[in-house]
Amino acid sequence: MQALERLHETKPVRPGLVERVEFEYIRHGTLSLIANFDVATGKVICPSIGPTRTEADFAAHIDKTVESDPGATWIFVVDQLDTHRSASLVRLVARRCGLEEALGVKGKQGILKSKKTRRKFLEDPSHRIRFVYTPRHCSWLNQVEIWFSILARRLLKRSSFTSIDDLRSRVFQFVEYFHRVLAKPFRWTYTGRPLQA
């Protein structure tokens, strides 16, 4: 997310004129948002905002999420980013699930050897914490992506932020607003029939 500050004020709607947003801006920096969407309640759980979205950032986010209900069973639906199949994530799941098996060495042997072996471990349905991977180019199957589009349309698209701290604060305010006013499970409307021209 970019912290863009508009150089001039937005001109409000007037009879015969739409709202006019200044196109010139000052860029104060960027932040990365990692979030979970609870499909049963329609709420965002444990959002993390930071300067990067690295393997360590994602693993720390998952750890923070699991810590919010340490004894629960967790199923995370994710895309196939490398950070979602990382060695750090495998170690985290093994530790949190109390698994004593040897994990091997990244790039050489065992569970940690490759993305494929790590993914197989992370998908294991016998684990209390597991991951389900959406097919490539199917981000619409992951409901948090729908929520990200709501955030982009309702907050980010036409806003002006004075700093990255302002952006961070307003994203958290939007999450609270969303929970109070808009949160509900998404209703799938696609019936599976092919689209016709």
Description:
With 197 residues, this protein is of the alpha+beta class. It folds into two domains: 1-30 and 144-174, no CATH class; 53-141, no CATH class. It is built from five helices and six strands. It has helices at 55-67, 87-96, 115-123, 143-156, 164-182, and strands at residues 2-6, 25-30, 32-38, 43-50, 74-78, 129-133. The strands form three sheets. Strands 1-2 form a two-stranded antiparallel sheet. Strands 3-4 form a two-stranded antiparallel ribbon. Strand 3 and strand 4 form a beta hairpin. Helix 1 runs parallel beside helix 2. The longest helix has 19 residues, at 164-182. The protein is elongated. The model has no long low-confidence stretch (mean pLDDT 92).
Q: What's this model, at a glance?
A:
The chain has 197 residues and is α+β, with helices and mostly antiparallel strands. The protein has helices at 55-67, 87-96, 115-123, 143-156, 164-182; strands at 2-6, 25-30, 32-38, 43-50, 74-78, 129-133. The longest helix is centred in the last third of the chain and has 19 residues, at 164-182.
